[in-house]
Each structure stands twice: as C-alpha cells, then as structure tokens.
Amino acid sequence: MSAYGEFLPDLEAAFQDVAISALGQAEVVTAQRLDTPPPQYQGAYLGLVALQGALQIGIASDEAGCQILSKGLMGMTDADPPLPDGELADAFCEIVNIVAGGFKAKVRERSGNLQLGLPVFFRGPAQPTEHTAVKVAVVKMGPVSAALLLVFPRGNGQG
Amino acid sequence: MQILVVDDSKAMRSIVMRAVRQAGYDATFVEASNGAEALKVIHATPPSLVMADWNMPEMSGIELLQALRAEGNQIKMGFVTSESDPSMRDLAFQSGALFMLTKPFTPDAIKAALAPVLA
C-alpha cells in the first residue's frame, strides 16, 4: 500500500475531472502545494476507511468560491441568488462525495479497499494534531481559489 | 410514470430529477433521503422505478435493494452513485440492480441507463 501523502495528485486529478464535467469550470490549475491548511476557509470533508488505515479528503474555499462551485453543480449561474446556508452545505458536501468517488477509483490499486464515508460541512481550517498530517493543493479556477486537503495519520505519508 | 429518487443530498435529488426530464421522460417524482425512508414510500405507493444513491445514512442503497428482494419485491431499481468500484457493481447487479450510473453523469448517460429499463 502506498503512503497516503502520495495521493495528493490523485485528489487534484479527481477534483479537476469533476470541476470541468459537473461544476461549469473551464480549467483547473494547481497554484501551490502546502503542508498546512489555509485559514478562513469553509468546505466539506469525507472520510475513507480501509482495513489498512483511514484518511480524509476535504475541499474548501471562501464563501464566494463555495457559492460558485455549488451553483455550478446545481446548473445555476453567478447571476442566480446565493444559496442559503443549508443548501450550500448540502451541495458542497455532494461535490466532495463525487470527488471522493473519483479519487477512490484513481487510487484503488494502491490504497487497499477504501470505503467512502458520509461528508460533513465545516467552517474554518482543519487543525492537525500530533497524530495527523495534512497535505494541501491550492487550485485556481478563474476567480475561484480552492484548497484540496488530504488528512491522514502521521507515519502514513510523511515520507 | 412515477420515479422514486433516493439520495441524502437534496441537491443531487434535484439534479437527478432535472436530468431525467432533460432526457425526455415525462415522469413525476417522489423523493426519499435514505433507504429506510424509501422502503416506506415503496410500501405505501410503489413507483415505476427507484433511482438510489449507494452511500446514505440509516439504510444504504444496496441495503434497500436487498431488503426489497428479500421480501419478494421485484420493483425496478438502479443506482446513481459516486461509487464505481467493480466489486460494488458486481454486488449491485447480482442483487438485481438494472443500472449503475456513476456521478457526475451526463443527460446522455441517464438516457442510456433508462432507455432499456423504461422501454
């Protein structure tokens, strides 16, 4: 089984597939990779569990970015009124769910048999503990900036 | 024709219903947010087709299908899910699913999945 930290490019590729095919984005560019989560973002996490271990993926953006991506999923445009908080959280969780399915397919041969959990919406940054590590890819889609997060136990992916 | 759309995401239920309409089907819809809720709907008013997510709280899509088949209910059912694992596809079809559509999907994919089922 590969170290989970090596899966960040797979998460980027899975997100790109979904952003272009289902969120109305023309292009996704990875701007930078970080080892700490960006502050003041909101988004959703979803856990993936295998007998060999567990990890979480997350997608986060600012309020405007979450609105644009969620409206894109719903087939809405920027001109449509903002989604209420509950609908925004629901749609954004579904984005993470879809990305997680693509991610799972991309890492299947290297990850063991990952099972998808249910997504949860959050506001604010993930706070890694001494037992967890975070790898982040910041991606740009026109005016939208988003962070793709991989959270996993230390010792599995720390190189 | 009445279609029961089962997904814990209200957004995804809306997307599925819109895609079915865009595929040209003149359907009415009922909604459920998990398998247990869907089972009650099916018992009360059986729809023509069930389109269900796989991963849901309380009762998953595959648990719903297996519960229906265990009680002898042969209602038409397929999955609309982010899962694409071959072993899960095998389980779905062995359990009696008619299609397994992977999210995100296109209207054409919906059409291709539903055409043989609703012919």
Care to describe what's here?
The complex is a heterodimer of chains A (159) and B (119). With 159 residues, chain A is an alpha+beta fold. Helix content of chain A is 33%, strand content 31%. Chain A is built from 3 helices and 7 strands, in the order αβββααββββ. In chain A, a hairpin with a 2-residue loop joins strand 6 and strand 7 (144-153). In chain A, helix 2 crosses helix 3 (85-111). Chain A is globular, with a radius of gyration of 15 Å. The mean pLDDT of chain A is 91. Chain B is α/β, with parallel strands linked by helices. Chain B is built from 5 helices and 5 strands. Chain B has helices spanning 10-22, 35-44, 61-70, 86-94, 107-118, and strands at 2-6, 28-32, 49-52, 76-81, 100-102. Chain B has a 5-stranded parallel β-sheet with strand order 2-1-3-4-5, with helices on both faces. In chain B, strand 4, helix 4 (86-94) and strand 5 (100-102) form a beta-alpha-beta unit. Chain B is globular and about 35 Å long. Chain B starts with a strand and ends with a helix. Chains A and B meet through helix 1 and helix 3 of A and helix 1 of B.
